[in-house]
């Protein structure tokens, strides 16, 4: 099992969720986060005054999937989240050693 963690622009969330549903992804976790990458924030103008925004709003999506779905999930997220502009985000994949569904006691891939 793998944890696929993606950081995307907030307005792309619905498109990403719709892209994952046909793959059989049954659940995901979404968190509103702030951060910056290579763009190092941005300059905003508010009421005529210019100020620096260091952290930009992002959405963090986490989904645990069987190993055989990782490539398809990464491709679907990347395609749905892409705007071809700086700040589109990143995808990370981490190993998940164990999983347990608390209600039923199912473990590992059965718990997904």
UniProtKB/TrEMBL annotation:
GO terms for biological process: regulation of nitrogen utilization. The modification O-UMP-tyrosine is found at residue 51. It comes from the Bacteria. GO terms for cellular component: cytosol. Keywords: Nitrogen fixation, Nucleotide-binding, Phosphoprotein, Transcription, Transcription regulation. GO terms for molecular function: ATP binding; enzyme regulator activity. It holds the Pfam family P-II. Belongs to the P(II) protein family. Homotrimer. This is Nitrogen regulatory protein P-II. The lineage of its organism: Bacteria, Pseudomonadati, Pseudomonadota, Alphaproteobacteria, Acetobacterales.
């Amino acid at each position: 099992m793998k944890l696929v963690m993606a950081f995307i622009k907030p307005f792309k969330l619905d498109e990403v969720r719709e892209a994952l549903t046909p793959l059989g992804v049954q659940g995901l976790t979404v968190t509103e986060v702030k951060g910056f990458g290579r763009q190092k924030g941005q300059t905003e103008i508010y009421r005529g005054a210019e100020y620096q925004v260091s952290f930009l709003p992002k959405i963090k999506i986490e989904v645990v999937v069987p190993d055989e779905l990782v490539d398809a999930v990464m491709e679907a997220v990347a395609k749905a989240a892409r705007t071809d502009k700086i700040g589109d985000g990143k995808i990370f994949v981490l190993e998940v050693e164990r999983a347990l569904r608390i209600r039923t006691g199912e473990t590992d891939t059965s718990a997904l």
